[in-house]
Amino acid sequence: MPIMRTDALFYSIFQQFPQLFFELIGRDYSDAQNYQFVTEELKEISLTLDGLLIPQADYEHNPLYFIEVQFQKKQNFYPRLFAEIFTYLYQKEVTLPWQAVVIFPTKNIEVEPSGAYQELMESNRVIHIYIDEIINNFQQNSELDLFRLFQSPLEETKTIAKNLIKREYAWLGDESKQKNWVRLIETIIVYKYPKLTRKEIEMLFGLAELKDTKVYQEAFQEGQIEGYQQGMQQGMQQGLQQGMQQGMQQEIIKTIELGLELKFGSAGNRLLPEIMLIKDVGLLNRIRASIKGAENINEIRLIYA
User: Fold this and answer.
1) Helices and strands (H and E) in the chain: how many
2) Which string of DSSP letters, residue by residue, matches 119-178?
3) Which residues of 255-280 are buried (b: 16+ CB within 10 A; e: fewer)?
4) Can you give the pLDDT at residue 53?
5) What are the backbone dihedrals phi and psi of residue 2, each rounded to the nearest 5 degrees, phi first?
6) Predicted TM-score (pTM) of this structure
7) Helix, coil or strand: residue 37
8) Using CB atoms within 10 A as the burial measure, which of 39, 121, 169, 199 is most buried?
9) 3-class DSSP state of 297
10) Residue 1: pLDDT above 50?
11) Average pLDDT in the chain
């Protein structure tokens, strides 16, 4: 599978559509309405919890979910994860029950921790999700087909993407969520196939046909899909090569906004008021380029502060 920011995309999925998280772990998707997705930076240590689902005030008997996506082998994955969890529980004085949901593409990516963590690993505190195993158990033609996009070959990806876009899901509700659903599918495709041009993506994945639908036309008129495609492809991958100074500045900021949201979730939004004041296109491009490798938002702030 091509290299892509898979963890950030998963967090974006669960932030926008938490119903999919609950279906993934075998719970009823209606539980999503009782939770809020957040990103937390832990005080005094350089650790960030990228995905938490916190139960609403009226549902405090429900567990708190720590979500961690790991698509590359990492020796200290579990020690770091448990350090983050227990630091959060201590700092926030949490009294709720909790579970950690760890998502790997395959089991061979997982590095088993030392015996110091054995009891935690064997308890029901940790839920292990292996995408390649569970997608075979998914009911095809469901919204969970979205996760097939991460590992499917090109021809299968084309079919899945077209079906996901054309299908209607009751839980998506209003048209705003339907537009976000389309944008999310496009985001995964752009990240998965970064060398494809916008026209090639439209032709391969049936996006040209999609333009005839009401949802796409409204999103296009509002500049949501157009801005996304131009920003992600020209800004994140190729850089903005033309246009006047003001137009370039706006497009790069739009790209930075998307990048920060995908990488850091809601925490990334804290930088936007500062970045929007920057007029230097060169500096904006350096900020944009730094997002992929940054460990936290403070690393990005150091570039322009």
Assistant:
1) 15, 5
2) HHHHSTTEEEEEHHHHTTTSPSSSGGGGGGGGT--HHHHHHHHHHHHHS--GGG-SHHHH
3) bbbbbbbbbbbebbeebeeebeeeee
4) 94
5) -60, 150
6) 0.65
7) strand
8) 39
9) helix
10) no
11) 79
